[in-house]
Amino acid sequence: MAFVAKGRFFAAVATALLMTAGMAQAATQCGNNSAGFESWVQAYQQQAGAQGIGSRGINALGNVKYATKTINADRNQKSFKYSLDKFMQVRGAQTIIARGRAQKAQNAALFNRIEQRYGVPAGPLIAIWGMETGFGSYMGNQHTLSAVATLAYDCRRTEYFREQLNAALKLVDNGTLAPNAVGAMHGEIGQTQFLPLNVLRYGADGDGNGRIDMVRSKADALASTANFLVGHGWRAGGGYQPGQANYGAIAGWNAATVYQQAIAIIGAKIDGE
């Protein structure tokens, strides 16, 4: 009898190990459509704890849906293929410059504090703010966790967005991101559209209230953007046009050359250069 019981015990252990291995394998798979997404999410939940994600994040992951609109947007990013002139026209550069100068004047104390702390002048920050969300006027309506989870499941940039998904779930754990938060199509958050991992790494409390709110606080969003640039090599007092010391930090913001050039041009116009 003892031998039989021991045999059953080892059989149960073996079954549990096989199930764990099966869940791990499922969570590493990817797909190019919604088929298999729900089972992938369930498997990912089972492994999330090993990635340092707590119960709040794990529970939030259970409410995601396959985001077809996110996939469509990811497959049709046309504006970065434009010439610089066309890109500036499509993005409304002249309007951003005019409104950006007004924003700089209206928020002079805030931009002075940010420059003193990070060494980043107002121009490039305002250029990013204006191009990303029209100075916080529209930040998207896509369910953030669904967008990031869909891209983490998608085969195109799987590993990159699994890092973003883990970061988003950690933001839910620490209260920075609400489980039902909405944002841009790729899961970008707030007034300057930070991906979740960048919120974790560079999020800054710009208004001094003890928390980071990239959506409701322009001070937090702009201070975080300055902190991001510093983290990508920005040095106080250096120029930020192509070939100058801080252009590489701007390149860290977006891989598209036209976007980098637009930030530099619009920022210089706002800064009066």
TrEMBL record:
Domain Transglycosylase SLT residue range list: 37-240
Signal peptide positions (record): 1-26
Q: Which InterPro entries match?
A: Lysozyme-like_dom_sf, MltB-like, SLT_2
Superkingdom to which the source organism belongs = Bacteria
One matching Pfam family is SLT_2
A GO BP term here is: peptidoglycan catabolic process
Which SUPFAM superfamilies is this protein grouped with? Lysozyme-like
> What are the record keywords, sorted?
Signal
One Gene Ontology term of the molecular function aspect: peptidoglycan lytic transglycosylase activity
Q: What is this protein called?
A: Lytic murein transglycosylase
Q: What lineage is this protein's organism placed in?
A: Bacteria, Pseudomonadati, Pseudomonadota, Alphaproteobacteria, Hyphomicrobiales
